[in-house]
């Protein structure tokens, strides 16, 4: 963090600068106002990661920028760093590891039932504990994200993820199912530090024409982990009766997870200060949650996102059970069907992200993808029991393309509807809804499958996806972030409690010149609207 002391000339000229700025509002977006990470907005204003850089922040010559009680709002010039892709790819790596550990048991449900001597419902809880843990921990972790920034959250999530893998490594005996559950709970806590990050990373690091693509790449890692979780366990852990040999196969799977987690690098500390525009004290954090729940469009999106993602969680958890009922002995192909669902969904997510960056049609794209996910679910339901696995592969892939492809769309649509509120809070609330519906759908569909068969269980999900599609149609496309991106200095009314001091002829520092060589500048004056968004 750079905290430069003002020289005497700056102190002496502060009054005249303030007057000049009041007469010429366009100076509020002067290029010398740097919004780069770890560099102060003005030599006299320190951009501490724990303080907010609201427009209402008082820029005093001798002090730091103290947050005010007003809501967070964006400032001036945005510099896009070349390292942004490295950040999102590193995040995708450890997100992938966490997602793998979520689904690794459910993808070979019957084998772990035999090994540990427990019921199918007990194995289902190894998946559902991820969903249950997320609900009470969402708000505390969202607060930590606002308080300490991206790097601290990334380090914590990665460490917990690795710890959970090592705990499960010690559960390779048939009588140690409680240890397995403990390790899975640790990994589920790590998930809380991971699941809501894609939209936050995209907004903090990427320009206006890249955010949706970047969000899709971040979600891509999580979906890739699920795909590997469907593919690898059935291969590494065959359905055999020798429990010692089975324990050996299971240990290989966990060693892969533990060793791989030590390699990825984490986002650098400068990522923390990139949340300067949205960092806020406790009061603003709580008031932000209240404002979000007063936003009807966002509340509708919370419900519709939860219905879609919850259906996906239930399908992923119960897929092995459904396939084995119709195709006995096809554990490996059951995993491959899950892989097909997720891989096609990853492709759908990437296409959706690129499409959004080009067209900005958030409402239309979200609605079309939701309807197609419903259609895919109906077709999958009707073809699952036909006796032809190749048909199931095709219909499951079509369903996954839209159902999984919807996930980053929901994140980005939420950011648009809730700007300038924190992306971490909005995406966290979406994920909490997904966990709640995921638990409800997994338990309910599991009971329906056990008592009535797979088709009634899938019809159960189709009904709720239909409800989600209808509710999506009622969401108004209030694209607040897009409106802010289109604002210019001439039509923005500054509402600073005290003006930020700017020298028109201020020369960049040596550090700024080095930063300029590594970065390309994208001017996005997103000044502050008088109406609080």
Automatic annotation (TrEMBL):
It comes from the Eukaryota. GO terms for cellular component: endoplasmic reticulum membrane; mitochondrial membrane; plasma membrane. SUPFAM superfamilies: MFS general substrate transporter. PROSITE patterns: MFS. Gene3D superfamilies: MFS general substrate transporter like domains. Coiled coil: none annotated. It catalyses: choline(out) = choline(in); heme b(in) = heme b(out); ethanolamine(in) = ethanolamine(out). Belongs to the major facilitator superfamily. Feline leukemia virus subgroup C receptor (TC 2.A.1.28.1) family. This is Choline/ethanolamine transporter FLVCR2. It comes from Balaenoptera acutorostrata (Common minke whale). The lineage of its organism: Eukaryota, Metazoa, Chordata, Craniata, Vertebrata. The gene is FLVCR2.
């Amino acid at each position: 963090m750079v905290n430069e002391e003002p020289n005497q000339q700056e102190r002496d000229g502060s009054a005249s600068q303030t007057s000049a700025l009041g007469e010429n509002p366009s100076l509020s977006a002067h290029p010398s106002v740097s919004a780069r990470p770890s560099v102060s907005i003005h030599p006299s204003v320190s951009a501490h990661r724990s303080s907010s850089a609201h427009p209402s922040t008082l820029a005093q010559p001798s002090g730091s920028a103290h947050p005010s009680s007003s809501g967070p709002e964006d400032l001036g010039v945005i510099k896009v760093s070349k390292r942004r892709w490295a950040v999102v790819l590193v995040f995708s790596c450890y997100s992938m590891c966490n997602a793998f550990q979520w689904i690794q048991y459910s993808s070979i449900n019957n084998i772990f039932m035999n090994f540990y001597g427990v019921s199918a419902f007990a194995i289902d809880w190894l998946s559902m504990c991820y969903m249950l843990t997320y609900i009470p921990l969402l708000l505390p972790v969202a607060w930590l994200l606002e308080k300490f920034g991206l790097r601290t959250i990334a380090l914590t999530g990665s460490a917990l993820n690795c710890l959970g893998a090592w705990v499960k490594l010690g559960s390779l005996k048939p009588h140690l199912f409680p240890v397995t559950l403990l390790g899975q709970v640790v990994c589920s806590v790590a998930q809380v530090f991971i699941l809501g990050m894609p939209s936050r990373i995209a907004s903090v690091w990427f320009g206006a024409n890249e955010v949706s693509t970047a969000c899709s790449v971040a979600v891509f890692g999580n979906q890739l982990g699920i795909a590997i979780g469907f593919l690898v366990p059935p291969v590494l852990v065959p359905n055999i009766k020798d429990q010692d040999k089975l324990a050996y196969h299971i240990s290989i799977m966990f060693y892969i997870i533990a060793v791989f987690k030590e390699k990825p690098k984490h986002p650098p500390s400068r990522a923390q200060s990139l949340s300067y525009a949205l960092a806020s004290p406790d009061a603003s954090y709580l008031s932000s949650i209240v404002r979000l729940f007063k936003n009807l469009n966002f509340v509708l999106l919370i419900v519709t996102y939860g219905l879609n993602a919850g259906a996906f969680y239930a399908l992923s958890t119960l897929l092995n059970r459904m396939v084995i009922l119709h195709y006995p002995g096809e554990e490996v192909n059951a995993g491959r069907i899950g892989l097909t669902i997720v891989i096609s969904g990853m492709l759908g997510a990437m296409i959706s992200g690129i499409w959004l960056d080009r067209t900005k049609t958030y409402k239309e794209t979200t609605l079309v993808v939701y309807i197609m996910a419903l259609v895919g679910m109906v077709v999958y339901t009707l073809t699952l029991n036909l006796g032809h696995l190749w048909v199931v592969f095709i219909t499951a892939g079509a369903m996954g393309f839209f159902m999984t492809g919807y996930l980053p769309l929901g994140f980005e649509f939420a950011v648009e509807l809730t700007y300038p509120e924190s992306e971490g809070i909005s995406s966290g609330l979406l994920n909490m809804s997904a966990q709640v519906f995921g638990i409800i759908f997994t338990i309910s569909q599991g009971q329906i499958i056990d008592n009535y068969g797979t088709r009634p269980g899938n019809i159960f999900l189709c009904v709720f996806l239909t409800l989600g599609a209808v509710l999506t149609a009622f969401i108004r496309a209030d694209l607040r972030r897009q409106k802010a991106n289109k604002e210019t200095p001439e039509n923005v009314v500054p509402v600073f409690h005290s003006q930020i001091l700017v020298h028109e002829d201020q020369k960049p520092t040596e550090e700024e010149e080095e930063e300029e060589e590594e970065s390309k500048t994208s001017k996005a004056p997103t000044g502050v609207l008088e109406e609080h968004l």
